[in-house]
């Protein structure tokens, strides 16, 4: 017998604030680590130059050249780090124009399929996906980052599948990008979109953070799931905005 409906409202403000603080603590930790690494060779090179100058070493000219090259290289690395973070912080605003999602996906996949002969690229596109307003250049950047990650996860051998779906009722398009790589542990899935978090041991860890930022600014959502029987699936859902006349 129907007895009514119970609706429970939870205030998640504190939880969301805590998650944001934790995310930026991770950013600060990664940045501190990236900045700290070059400081040691910089300090050692300066100390070595000073010692050799005090000793009036006959090899001073040779040591001077070696140490200054190290200093210049490390300073360049720090400059690139700052430039990357600055670009992430001031990414251009979304400029919406009519885009053909499938043409963007086809051109992106085509450029990779010609180079990676040991990877099978599969595409299944829904004919119902309409032309809609979006920033085509930024969407291409999303797909390039996702495919780059998939290729690295598979060791340049395997299969990448891209499927699209259109929900006319909700007016949204969904893109599934799946690979047959080693997969992602559950405990780090939620941290992959944090700037400067990386599982690769190299790189700055900005790729998925940029992807998340672009999709969010298009009003969409992105999530990561396991792909069966192995690998990872990235699911993107973007609301479709049509041009008004």
Low-confidence parts: none
Q: How many helices?
A: 6
Give the H and E element order: HHEHEEHEEHHEE
Percent of residues in β-strands: 15-25%
Number of strands: 7
Task: Walk me through this protein's architecture.
It contains 6 helices and 7 strands. The chain has 245 residues and is α+β, with helices and mostly antiparallel strands. It has a 5-stranded mixed sheet, with helices on one face. A two-stranded antiparallel sheet has the order 1-3. Strand 4 and strand 5 form a beta hairpin. Helix 1 packs antiparallel against helix 2 (60-89). 19% of the residues are buried.
Helix-strand blueprint:
Blueprint: H1 13-55, H2 60-89, E1 97-99, H3 101-113, E2 119-124, E3 132-134, H4 136-154, E4 158-167, E5 172-179, H5 186-189, H6 207-217, E6 221-226, E7 232-239
Helix pairs in contact: 1-2, 3-4, 4-6
Which structural traits does this protein have?
single chain; 245 residues; alpha+beta; five-stranded mixed β-sheet; 6 helices
Condensed summary:
The chain has helices at 13-55, 60-89, 101-113, 136-154, 186-189, 207-217; strands at residues 97-99, 119-124, 132-134, 158-167, 172-179, 221-226, 232-239. The chain is α+β, with helices and mostly antiparallel strands and 245 residues long.
């Amino acid at each position: 017998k129907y007895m009514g409906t119970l609706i429970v409202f939870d205030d998640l403000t504190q939880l969301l604030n805590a998650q944001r603080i934790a995310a930026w603590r991770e950013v600060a930790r990664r940045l501190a680590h990236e900045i700290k690494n070059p400081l040691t060779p910089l300090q050692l090179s300066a100390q070595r130059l000073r010692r050799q100058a005090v000793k009036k070493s006959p090899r001073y000219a040779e040591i001077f050249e070696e140490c200054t090259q190290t200093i210049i290289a490390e300073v360049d690395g720090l400059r690139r780090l700052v430039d990357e973070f600055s670009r992430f912080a001031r990414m251009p605003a979304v400029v919406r124009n009519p885009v053909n999602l499938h043409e963007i996906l086809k051109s992106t996949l085509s450029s990779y399929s010609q180079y990676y002969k040991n990877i099978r690229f599969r595409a299944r596109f829904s004919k119902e996906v309409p032309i809609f307003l979006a920033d085509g250049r930024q969407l291409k950047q999303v797909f390039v980052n996702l495919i780059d990650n998939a290729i690295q996860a598979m060791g340049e051998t395997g299969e990448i599948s891209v499927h699209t779906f259109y929900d006319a009722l909700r007016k949204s398009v969904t893109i599934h990008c799946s690979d047959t790589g080693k997969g992602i542990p559950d405990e780090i899935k939620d941290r992959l979109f944090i700037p400067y978090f990386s599982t690769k041991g190299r790189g700055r860890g900005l790729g998925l953070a940029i992807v998340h930022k672009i999709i969010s600014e298009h009003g969409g959502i992105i999530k990561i799931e396991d792909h069966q029987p192995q690998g990872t699936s990235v699911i993107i859902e973007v609301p479709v905005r049509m041009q008004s006349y």
